[in-house]
């Protein structure tokens, strides 16, 4: 019994997304110059006459710019629609929200699926290695092009939280507040290991073709689906899996004609297996394998203390930014211990920082799920900073 992948023979069609093109390109940290840069984005709410109400919302690893409206490929609601919108914790009646597809992504921003400048050939595995800082510098170009000289805040969860922290380090005078959620100031060895397993699954797919799978009009669907399945397990908790699935078994009707021995071993599947297979097959319809490789490696390289001889407080020295760090008690991918490490470093740097650990059994993905305590924390922090700053 394998993974069923719909439309596995057709490369991802990203369609036409709202984007800005920067003809001057972007100098990457690896030393490569991108001759041209596209940044795909969405905005919500209205920029105030004083241009002081803009919030950048940074998406997590497999997210995109469709934070609060219908996704054009899946038809599903925005990935944080419960958080962003009129009257929501990030209230678009008050704030102007900007969300970009990260550099290296596959929903319109320059990445491996993009055509090389002046060519009809895709970048593919020739796309240069990027960092979280490169992602943020691309976002900075977009923000400035929209006429925003100073942001009100930067908010993000998981990899989005890495971007939020990078904003605070690279452009500390650019915003009033930063809210990193379920994240860390570095990618741990365990997380790097998980990412490597996912990459190896993609490489092992017979449809990988050295990363030039589009030339065969196929995608490495099985490898990408397995990578997603493995990663998705890390986003959950044992308690959440047990509550949702336990050891319940379901019979797959496609196996009705399977030989008896095979049916005995694989015909009855646990509901958690079926759930993971669904997650994997759905993922390949909206994500590109080369982007998966590019972005996971960017996350692996993330370490804010690396340029400061391992001294994280030095990265935030003299920062004027107000921080609110949020963790979840059952998050074992980015555990509360790493958030506390970040908070201690911010305290040592004399930063204005508050810290909230939210009790939940939903795991890392808690920031995307219904969590009233998170809603109250986001609303309270942003509202308090806005009131203190005299934001209308």
Automatic annotation (TrEMBL):
Q: Where does substrate bind?
A: 228, 365
Q: Which UniProt keywords apply?
A: Acyltransferase, Amino-acid biosynthesis, Cytoplasm, Methionine biosynthesis, Transferase
* Alphabetized Pfam families for the sequence: Abhydrolase_1 (PF00561)
Q: Report domain AB hydrolase-1 positions.
A: 53-370
GO cellular component terms, semicolon-separated? cytoplasm
**What is the catalytic activity of this protein?**
L-homoserine + acetyl-CoA = O-acetyl-L-homoserine + CoA
- Pathway info: Amino-acid biosynthesis; L-methionine biosynthesis via de novo pathway; O-acetyl-L-homoserine from L-homoserine: step 1/1
From which residue to which does the signal peptide run?
none
> Its domain of life?
Bacteria
Q: Where in the cell is it found?
A: Cytoplasm
Give this protein's Gene Ontology molecular function annotations.
Answer: homoserine O-acetyltransferase activity
Task: List the catalytic residues.
Answer: 158, 331, 364
Q: Give the EC number(s) listed in the UniProt record.
A: 2.3.1.31
Q: What are the GO BP annotations of this UniProt entry?
A: homoserine metabolic process; methionine biosynthetic process
Family from the record: Belongs to the AB hydrolase superfamily. MetX family.
Spell out the subunit comment.
Homodimer.
Question: What biological function has been recorded for the protein in this entry?
Answer: Transfers an acetyl group from acetyl-CoA to L-homoserine, forming acetyl-L-homoserine.
What is the protein named? Homoserine O-acetyltransferase
Species assigned in the record = Acetobacter orleanensis
From which lineage does this chain's organism come? Bacteria, Pseudomonadati, Pseudomonadota, Alphaproteobacteria, Acetobacterales
């Amino acid at each position: 019994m394998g993974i069923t992948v719909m439309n596995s023979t057709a490369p991802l069609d990203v369609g036409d997304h709202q984007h800005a093109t920067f003809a001057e390109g972007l100098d990457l940290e690896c030393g490569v110059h991108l001759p041209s840069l596209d940044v795909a984005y969405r905005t919500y709410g209205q920029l105030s006459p004083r241009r002081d109400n803009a919030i950048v919302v940074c998406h997590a690893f497999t997210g995109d710019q469709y934070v609060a409206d219908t996704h054009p490929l899946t038809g599903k609601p925005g990935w944080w629609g419960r958080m962003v919108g009129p009257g929501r914790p990030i209230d678009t009646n008050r704030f102007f929200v900007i969300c970009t597809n990260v550099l290296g992504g596959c929903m319109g921003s320059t990445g491996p699926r993009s055509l090389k400048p002046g060519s009809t050939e895709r970048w593919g595995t020739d796309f240069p290695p990027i960092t979280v800082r490169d992602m943020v510098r691309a976002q900075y170009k977009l923000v400035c092009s929209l006429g925003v000289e100073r942001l009100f805040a930067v908010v993000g969860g998981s990899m989005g939280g890495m971007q939020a922290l990078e904003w605070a380090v690279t452009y500390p005078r650019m915003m009033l507040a930063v809210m990193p959620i379920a994240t860390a100031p570095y990618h741990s060895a365990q997380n790097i290991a998980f990412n490597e397993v996912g990459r190896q699954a993609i490489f092992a797919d017979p449809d990988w073709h050295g990363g030039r799978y589009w030339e065969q009009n196929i995608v490495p669907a099985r490898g990408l689906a397995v990578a997603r399945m493995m990663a998705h397990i890390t986003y959950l908790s044992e308690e959440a899996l047990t509550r949702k699935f336990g050891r319940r078994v379901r019979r797959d009707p496609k196996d009705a004609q399977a030989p008896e021995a095979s049916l005995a071993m694989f015909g009855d599947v646990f509901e958690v297996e079926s759930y993971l297979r669904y997650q994997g097959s759905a993922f390949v319809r909206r994500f590109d394998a080369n982007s998966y490789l590019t972005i996971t490696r960017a996350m692996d390289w993330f370490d804010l203390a690396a340029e400061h001889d391992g001294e994280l407080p030095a990265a935030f020295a003299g920062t004027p930014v107000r921080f609110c760090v949020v963790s979840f008690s059952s998050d074992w991918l980015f555990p509360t211990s790493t958030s506390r490490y970040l908070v201690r470093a911010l305290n040592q740097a004399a930063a204005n920082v508050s810290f909230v650990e939210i009790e939940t059994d939903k795991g890392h993905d808690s920031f995307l799920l219904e969590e009233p305590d998170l809603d109250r924390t986001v609303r309270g922090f942003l509202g308090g900073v806005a009131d203190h700053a005299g934001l209308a």
